[in-house]
Each structure stands twice: as C-alpha cells, then as structure tokens.
Amino acid sequence: MSETYDFLFKFLVIGNAGTGKSCLLHQFIEKRFKDDSNHTIGVEFGSKIISVVNKFVKLQIWDTAGQERFRQSDGGAFRGGSDSSPDCMSVTRSYYRGAAGALLVYDITSRETYNALTNWLTDARMLASQNIVIILCGNKKDLDADREVTFLEASRFAQENELMFLETSALTGENVEEAFVQCARKILNKIESGELDPERMGSGIQYGDAALRQLRSPRRAQAESVQDCGC
Ligand code: GDP
Ligand code: MG
C-alpha cells in the first residue's frame, strides 16, 4: 500500500506488564505471534495504514517497552512512590501526550491485571486527553480454561466507563485487527460529527497527504477553470 493516507492517529497500548501488549502490537503489524525467544529489540513503536469506512488512516502506535513494570508497584501509574520523580513524570507525560486512541489491555486469566484498569484509565484521561478514545481488550482469549475475569463483568466495566470492549488473542490473532479498527472508526466518527477537532493542539490527529490534497483541490480546480477560460 502506498504511503498516502487521509489521517494519522497517535495510539497507545497500556495496561499491566505481561498482559500481551507487545504481542498485540506485533500481531497487528506483522500478522503473526511474537516468539518469546525474540527478546532482541522490543517493538517500541509500530505504524500501519488501515482502511476505515472510505478513509485511509495511518496508526502510529507507541508501546511502553517494559517501563510499565515500574509503575505497577504504585497501583498502575506514575503516582506517588519512587516513580514520581520529575524525570519519570516527564517521560510519562510525553508518552501519553496527544494520543487520540488507546488499547487498554488486561489478561483474562489474571484478576490482578483487571483490578489495575481503573488506575490506567485515570492516567490516560488525565495525561492524554479527556477525549481519548479507548478500547478495552481482554487479551489471552485462547486461555479460556484459566479465565479469572468473565466477559460479562468486563463488558459492564466497559459500559460504566464509556469504553469499547473486545476479548482478543494475540496468539491466534482473533479480534486484534478489529480492536485497532474499531478504535480508529470511533475517532473518525467523532471527527465527522465535529466532536473532535483535528486542528486542536494535542488532538493526536494529523491530516495526511490525501486529505490535504482534497482540502486544496477546490482552489486548484477553480484556478484551472480560470486558466481554461477562453475569454
Ligand atoms: P507485555 O508485557 O504486556 O508487553 O506482554 P507481552 O506481549 O510481552 O506478553 C507477555 C506474555 O504473554 C508472553 O509470554 C506472551 O507470549 C504471552 N501472550 C501474549 N499474548 C498472548 C495471548 O493472546 N495468548 C497467550 N496464550 N499468551 C499470550
Ligand atoms: Mg511489552
């Protein structure tokens, strides 16, 4: 696919360590499960162009690259404890800043990761934006026999907190693409309804070449019609 797109959205993948965030990103970008033996360079960043409705959207996705391990001891985020140093805070702020969307991930086989969701949510809304569009992902859906969190319980939590919700498996690939696409579709809807303004600073949205060409084309068409005029 060419590099032409209508919009670029900044996305985050957040949640406790071990929930499968890096694997979800890898599955989305590479369409295969990330092998555990491949520890060389953690994917810290990925981008992919997807087609949503009638638009091409480039997702620029940031992964935490393991720093979330330090945050968890404080209950999910950089609040209090040894991690509230100014350096840590500024790294966290720049990670969250201007994100348009996020995948908030827990592991369906670990209640602990589910219990941490409220803290992650507070951080995302406080440090990214009140308007950030979040999809809750109950990952490791393939491990149903070891499940500690029911689908119903998590869908109620999602409803109460105005989140979209899917159970995913980075292992089989089930619902992985859907999670990113649903989140992007909701952002597009909000742009179209005027609820989100791509030109607002920190919206996490940029126009791509295709959208800019469309914006410019009425003027170009006008100029051309003037040139073509034989009078
Ligand atoms: P992160 O710390 O949130 O980035 O988690 P990782 O992506 O590193 O995954 C943590 C562990 O969970 C690894 O051992 C993965 O192989 C495993 N894992 C990740 N996603 C899945 C999944 O969907 N199903 C299963 N069965 N294991 C998974
Ligand atoms: Mg990771």
From TrEMBL:
Hydrolase keyword on record: yes
SUPFAM superfamilies associated with the record: P-loop containing nucleoside triphosphate hydrolases (SSF52540)
Reactions it catalyzes: GTP + H2O = GDP + phosphate + H(+)
InterPro entries, alphabetized: P-loop_NTPase (IPR027417), Rab4 (IPR041819), Rab_GTPases_membrane_traffic (IPR050209), Small_GTP-bd (IPR005225), Small_GTPase (IPR001806)
A GO BP entry: protein transport
Tagged with keyword GTP-binding: yes
Coiled-coil zones: none
Segments crossing the lipid bilayer: none
Pfam families for this protein: Ras
Primary location group: membrane
Any GO MF annotation of the entry: metal ion binding
Record's keyword terms, sorted: Endosome, GTP-binding, Hydrolase, Lipoprotein, Magnesium, Membrane, Metal-binding, Methylation, Nucleotide-binding, Prenylation, Protein transport, Transport
Cofactor: Mg(2+)
Annotated compartments: Cell membrane; Early endosome membrane
Gene Ontology CC, one term: early endosome membrane
Membrane topology term: Lipid-anchor
Taxonomic superkingdom: Eukaryota
Role summary: The small GTPases Rab are key regulators of intracellular membrane trafficking, from the formation of transport vesicles to their fusion with membranes. Rabs cycle between an inactive GDP-bound form and an active GTP-bound form that is able to recruit to membranes different sets of downstream effectors directly responsible for vesicle formation, movement, tethering and fusion.
Similarity-based family: Belongs to the small GTPase superfamily. Rab family.
Entry-linked PANTHER family: DRAB11-RELATED (PTHR47979)
Name of the protein this chain belongs to: Ras-related protein Rab-4
